Every structure is written in structure tokens, then in C-alpha cells.
Amino acid sequence: MLSFLLNFFIYLMASFGDASRAVKHMNEDHASSILAFAHFYAGKPHAKEAKLISATSAGFTVLIDGSTSVLIPYPPSCSVSTSKDLRKAAVHMHKEAFHGMGWGYKLRRGYYKDVAKILWGVARKRKGMKGMLGVLLGIGAAAGIGGMFFKRIKAKTKL
């Protein structure tokens, strides 16, 4: 029975494909997403750091604060059967985790700054100066409105 289970596990790993590049990329370029996964999906809102250990057909395995290993299953809406499906699942989970934690969390964790960088890059590629000006105005308005709400909430909590 043990050899059957071992062979079945090896089959599953082989059919999923090698996810080591995706794991390395996530740890190097998307550490804030992995930490958001730990906060939102693993229910560890006070975690200080999170590192992706592996990605399998079962989900992402995350090491939280260097001591706790947690398997975070993919949401039911994400169909992940091979390593090629990981990007789509990671993007979906990134958005769901940040949105689920709220706008204050996004503000504190640099979510809006990252979105601004992406929009800036898109505007530069597609529309030249007019596109950049529109993006800058949109970012400025969003930052101003976000700052006003943040100050109001902060002032209310000091009372």
C-alpha cells in the first residue's frame, strides 16, 4: 500500500510539472503577494514574513515567519492542473487577498504604488505623453482621495 501511495504521489508531481522557476520568481518579485496570502488565506494577519516553498496541484505551500509551513489551497474558481496554470491562479489570489484585506491594508502595503507602476508602464508603451498625463492625473486623484479617507479614519481612532 505504501509503495502504491508513493508511486501515485510521484505520478502527480511529474504530471504537474516543474514549478521551481515560478516559486523562485514569486519569492524574488512578489513577496508582498505571498505575505498577503499568509494574512488572508492562512488567517495569519500578524505574520511578518512569508516565503513560498512549493507550488503543486494542491496549492501553494508557504513558510510563515520562518517556522510555520501552511498549505494554501487554490480557490475553487482557479483550475490548476499543471505548473502552466500557476500564473493565472497567483494573479487571482493576489487580487482576492489584497481586496479581502481592505483598502487600508492596500495603502499600508504599497498596493496602490505597485498599481501606479504598472499603469505608468502601460501608458508609456501605448499612448505616449497624453497617456502618461492621464495616468498621472488618475494616480494623483486616487492618492489624494485615499489620503483623505486614511486621515479621517486615523483621526477617529485617536478620539
SS elements, strand count = 3
Query: The biggest beta sheet, please?
Result: 3 strands, antiparallel
The pLDDT mean sits at 82
Per CATH, the class of the largest domain reads Alpha Beta
Radius of gyration from the alpha-carbon trace, in angstroms: 19 Å
CATH superfamily of the largest domain: PNP-oxidase-like
Give the total of domains: 2
Kindly, what is the distance between the CA atoms of the first and last residues, rounded to a whole number of angstroms? 64 Å
Going across the biggest sheet, name each strand in turn: 1-2-3
Query: What general form does the structure show?
Result: globular
Instruction: Using the 3D structure, state the CATH architecture of the largest domain.
Output: Alpha-Beta Barrel
Question: Structural class of the helices, strands and pairings?
Answer: mainly alpha
Structure description:
This protein has 159 residues and is mostly helical. It folds into two domains: 15-101, PNP-oxidase-like (Split barrel-like); 102-159. 65% of the residues lie in helices and 12% in strands. It is built from seven helices and three strands. The protein has helices spanning 2-16, 20-29, 31-40, 86-101, 103-108, 111-126, 128-158, and strands spanning 50-56, 59-64, 68-73. Strands 1-2-3 form a three-stranded antiparallel β-sheet. A hairpin with a 2-residue loop joins strand 1 (50-56) and strand 2 (59-64). The relative contact order is 0.10. The model has no long low-confidence stretch (mean pLDDT 82).
